[in-house]
Design brief:
By secondary structure, this protein is α+β, with helices and mostly antiparallel strands. The protein is 30% helix and 26% strand. It has helices at residues 22-34, 72-90, 110-122, 133-139, 159-170, 216-222, 298-305, 308-316, 318-329, 331-339, 394-408, and strands at residues 12-18, 40-44, 60-61, 95-96, 100-104, 129-131, 147-151, 155-157, 177-180, 184-189, 194-198, 201-210, 229-241, 252-255, 267-270, 276-279, 283-284, 350-363, 373-376, 380-385. Helix 1 (22-34) runs parallel beside helix 5.
């Protein structure tokens, strides 16, 4: 969605949602559906929706396999996945429930593979099964593996199209607004309302929901909330298989993730566009919205590197981190990591494509926050950590935020 449904300066809203990614738009859609009399605005600082994390997403509909049973991640991923697929069918959004293979390539990975399988059983992931090397070859002929798991309910989708449909449904009665190119500069707090200062003028609202992703901790601080975490950006670089090589991947191929590191590792994803992406690595970024390998922003870098949690995280993961940095600048090293799963790949089979930046909340002790993290202010709600599988879980997260808002803001279904 480009352009903006215009609002008059100093216009009043009941709820302003900051951030035009899929979590913010899902929250707006859910609240608008249940509280049609509430005036809602979604403010996005870029000229298009989904410019950052949602727009750089791998497009995978996650099953919920990896997440701790009973965690918000596990519950919302499973619930959100099913709702997302129903939503895509209802509104004819292209998607494919193609399944994925998780392949162990070394004996040392087998205990972790078993742990993942048991996790999936506890999370009641439908249809998961252990598979032999022969079955791996049957599903993915080019894939290497000594044992594996097949997850039939995993799929692919265009999350930007999902988000655009959510935006369309939110504003269909013209009571609600999507305000693009509206960067929030600050807040003037009053007893019963907040004046939001933006680069396009000021607006008043009773309530704020912060879904600003890479900027979420800064928005929280501007609202007077001092979270016990900080957003530390990690860039992920992707390669794409050439037209000649992409037939080596039929659907989705994943490694067994390293349980000591918070990222899944490089994997192969056949996109809904029929391209095949491989990646990402995960390296510290010196710019929160920096998609180039050498992008740098002084304020972003200073805030990350003066935070003790960053250095504690570096110390805990320094060997892994060095390897990730080396791969970021070496096609040969990146290829070597891909060849663990598909040995037949060559340098001529891969070419650089997009990069993404992940907003990772890190605690003061250096531990990445693994689950969703939401805090409440006086008249506000702040989503401070919504890592993968947030896109898959977005409709469930939106429902959860709606429930928090209903109680915290005392929303009334019959009047705003």
């Amino acid at each position: 969605m480009k352009g903006s449904i215009l609002a008059d300066k100093n216009e009043n809203f009941d709820i302003v949602i900051i951030g035009g990614g899929i979590v913010g738009l899902s929250s707006a859609y859910k609240i608008a559906s249940s509280y049609p009399d509430a005036r809602i605005a979604v403010m996005e600082k870029e000229e298009t929706l989904c410019y950052h994390q949602t727009g750089h997403n791998s497009g995978v509909i996650h099953s919920g396999l990896y997440y701790k049973p009973g965690s918000a991640k596990a519950i919302n991923c499973t619930k959100g996945r099913k709702e997302l697929v129903s939503f895509a069918k209802q509104y004819e959004i292209p998607h494919d429930i193609c399944g994925k293979v998780i392949s162990a390539t070394a004996k040392k990975e087998l205990p972790h593979l078993e742990r993942i399988y048991q996790n999936g059983c506890e999370n009641q992931i439908e249809g998961i099964e252990k598979i032999t090397p022969e079955k791996i070859k049957e599903i993915e002929p080019a894939c290497n593996g000594i044992a594996g798991i097949f997850v039939p309910c995993t799929g692919i989708i265009d999350f930007v199209k999902v988000a655009e449909k959510l935006a369309e449904l939110t504003v269909k009665d013209n009571n609600n607004k999507i305000l693009l190119e509206h960067e929030v500069i600050g807040f003037d707090k009053h007893d019963y309302y907040t004046e939001i200062r933006t680069n396009q003028g000021n607006y008043t609202t009773k309530y704020i929901i912060n879904c600003a992703g890479l900027q979420s901790d800064r928005i929280a601080i501007a609202d007077g909330i001092w979270p016990d975490v900080r957003i530390i950006p990690f860039r992920g670089d992707y390669y794409e298989l050439t037209d000649q090589a992409k037939e080596k991947v039929k659907h989705l191929i994943y490694p067994v993730p390293d349980p000591t590191f918070p990222f899944l590792g490089v994997h192969f994803t056949r996109m809904i566009s029929n391209k095949v992406e491989c990646g990402p690595n995960a390296v510290f970024s010196f710019k929160r919205e920096g998609y180039g390998k050498t992008d740098f922003d002084f304020t972003d870098a200073w805030q990350s590197l003066t935070y003790m949690g960053t250095w504690k995280m570096f110390m805990k993961n320094w060997t892994y981190g060095l390897g990730e940095y080396a791969r970021a600048f070496s096609k040969k090293l990146f290829l070597r990591s891909l060849q663990r799963l598909i040995p037949a790949l060559t340098e001529q089979d891969i070419k650089p494509c997009k990069a993404g930046v992940r907003a990772q909340a890190v605690a003061k002790n250096g531990n990445p926050v693994d689950d969703f993290k939401i805090e409440k202010g006086k008249n506000s709600i702040h989503v401070l950590n919504a890592p993968s599988p947030a896109a898959t879980a977005s409709l469930a997260i939106g429902e959860y935020i709606k429930e928090i808002a209903a109680e915290h803001f005392k929303l009334n279904k019959s009047s705003s």
